[in-house]
Each structure stands twice: as structure tokens, then as C-alpha cells.
Amino acid sequence: MSAGEASGPDELKALRKENKRMERRVRQLERLVRTSEMMARQSKSVMERSLDGLRERTTDLEAAKEAAEAGLAAKDRFLATMSHEIRTPMNGVIGCIDLLTLSDLEQEDRSLVMTLKDSAETMMTLLNDILDFAKLQEDQTVIESRRLDVAHLVASVASSEKARCSSKGIDVLFAVDPAVPQALLGDEHRLRQVLSNLMGNAVKFTEHGSITLSVAVTDGGQQLRFEVRDTGIGMKPEVLGSIFAAFTQADETTARRFGGTGLGLAISSALVRAMGGQIEVSSEVGVGSCFYFSIPLALPAPDSREEESKVPAKQSLAEIISAQDVAGLRVLLVDDNPVNRKVGAKLIERLGCTVGLATGGAEGAQRALEEDWDAVLMDCSMPDVDGFQATERIRRSNSPRSRVHIVALTALSMEGDRERCLAAGMNDYVQKPLRVAELQEALARASSAERDAA
């Protein structure tokens, strides 16, 4: 047998062996593929179930989000409605009180009227506190940055409290650090609210002595420090840690004796935080209290030309009327509420103006375009044609009277209502209840705008 003949069977045997090995390998791969396919199907099933669960969870979350948003919207509508429904009758109450204040009354009668006025203003303060607290809870409060005169603001707030303190024999003082710049950037409305709350709190709990409001530059010129110091009843150390919590007062005896909701300090604390600061207090029973806070000092741009906001110090109504004479102006009052029309007309006439009345938006728009007026006082919430629609009709008209000065006179008081009125084409915004001083200032602005346009 030759060598070639001997190798043939060996090669064949080797090939068969290799073939079997390959077959085993193929079967292993097939089993691996089947296992992989099964695992893939299982994974796909698990993923599909997970996706179904995720979709269901997403749907539930979206439904919960929509329900929460609907709840917040309902709450906002309720607060807006409550505010409107309370402010509307209070407009008549405070308007009549102002008219009585301007009347020739005996001293005893005048004292009763002033007591009535204080009670009405206290009710409005409580309403505003509740609304502010609700907005702060929802983080809806916007802090503006506009030009302001801090020294003037401090003097104005201190002056506003002097009338309340004079009957108690309390001295009201204020001090402004000469280093405080005349022009700064900040939210004058919110800063005034905080300082007024702290001053009002000091007046409430001080029976004798003095109350001092001061402002100074600190932290190397980077911060403004405000301080309200009184010689009142003071507080125990154990209550200082919770004094800024909502609905909190020193004790039940204090609440019964001095009244209030316990919201003022909570609101002040939240507003100061929103302005970048932290309000604190030091106090000693029988000696007095000192509330203080610091906020960042911001300067306006060197080329800023924005007019400084000037809020006059508190004056008597007679002084206010003589200070800004608007006598002779022709004023159209548009309001569907007969009490508001009656009281509003009397207030306007008391300022020496000629008044016209319209009982709704359609009539108001028509009279505004057909007659010459120096100002239109436009209620916003009226049936059929509201103040926004009436303003739109006036502004879209081709009449030369379409640019008449329109003042929103409204019980709307939620965040953004003022901006909404201005965006609708109104020139100014006065919130109900209407007070003679605010009406006087609004009409003076209307007269000034008319002169500037002439």
C-alpha cells in the first residue's frame, strides 16, 4: 500500500470528525440564538409592560397636574371674586366717610366719623393681608425694580403714622443716613408695605415713648439696612423664634388685647426674602422691640431718565385738595353699580369737577367719543360690555376723542391686574375702595397728561 492510499481514509476520518464538531457548534449557536430570541422577547415584553406603566403613570401625573392647576385657578378666581365683592361695598362705605370728613361737622361727630374711617381701613388692611398671604403662599408675588427715592419713602411712611400716634402721645421719628443715595432701584410698593407693616405693628404695641424708623448704608455700601425701633411692651425671648410665622402673635392675651390676624409680620418676612434680605428682631419685655432687615443696594443706570416716584406724605383731605387743584375738569364716570356712581359723583364734584355718568360700558364708550372729557373713570367689571371692551372701542375709533385719558377704577386687586388694564389701553389705575386722595392724584395726572399732549 502506498503512502497516498494510506492517507486517504485518515483524511476522510478527519473530515467527518471536523464535520461533527462543526455540527455541534452550529447546534450550540442555534440554541444560543433561540435563547437570545427568547430573552429578547421577554425583555421586549418587560419593556412594553414598563412603557405601559410609564404611560399610565404619565397620564395620572398629567391628570393630577391639571387637577392641581384647576384647583389653583379656582382658588385664584375665588380670591379675585371675594376681593371684588368686598371692595365694591367698601367703596361706598369709605367714599361716604371721606365725604363726611370733608363736611362741616361738630367735633363729636367728626370724632365718630374718624373712628368709622379707622375701622373701615382696618377691615381693608385685613383683606389685603389675606390676599397678600395667599399670593405669597403660591409664590406669585413679583418684585419690581424701578427708580425710587428711599429718603422720601421713609419720611412718607413715618408721616403716615403720626396721626395715629398723636392721640397716644407717641413721638414718631425718622432718620436717613446721609450716605443713602437719593436715587435707587427697588420695588417701592413692596418696600412701603413692609415698612408700613412694621410701623403699624410698633404703633399697636406702644403705649408711650417713641417709634423711630431709620435707614442706613451698611456692608461697605452694598446693603441698605432698615430699622423700626419702639418703646413698646416688648416680647419674651421664647416667642421671638416664631414671631414671623403666619397667624402667630406673642400670646392669646396679646391677640385679644390688640387684635389683628398675625399675618403682617409673616407677609413682611416673605417680602423681604423676595427682595434678597432677611428680617430679624430683638426685643425685651417692658423696654421695646427693634425689627430690622438689610437688602441689596442697587443704583440706576447713569443715563436713566425715568421720573422718580414721589408719594406725598400724609395730609388732611383739605390739604390734599388745595395742593393739587383739579377744579374745572370734565370727568366721565362709567360704573354699573348705582352706589358707586352716587358716591363717585359726589367725590368728583367735591373736587370741583364737572361729572357725567354712564351706567355701562357701551354707554360709556359712546359718551366718551361723542363729548369732550378731560378724564374717563372706567369700571372694569361690568355686565355686557366691560371696561376692557369699552376701552378697546374707544381706542379703535377714528374719532379725535379716541385718545381721551382713561383711568381704570376697579375692585380688581390680584397680581397683574394693573398691567392688564394698562395693556388694554387705559392710562392709569386706581383701586377700589376709592379714596379722595387717590382720586385727586389720578385726576391731577390726567390733567398733566392733557397739558403735555397739547
Automatic annotation (TrEMBL):
InterPro entries named among the record's database cross-references: CheY-like_superfamily, HATPase_C_sf, HATPase_dom, His_kinase_dom, HisK_dim/P_dom, HisK_dim/P_sf, Sig_transdc_His_kin-like_C, Sig_transdc_resp-reg_receiver
Pfam family, one: HisKA
Cellular component GO terms held in the UniProt record: membrane
Catalytic activity, reaction form: ATP + protein L-histidine = ADP + protein N-phospho-L-histidine
Compositional bias segments (type: Basic and acidic residues): 10-21
Annotated positions of the 4-aspartylphosphate modification: 379
Region Disordered, residue ranges: 1-21
Protein name as annotated: histidine kinase
Origin species: Saltatorellus ferox
Primary gene name: luxQ_5
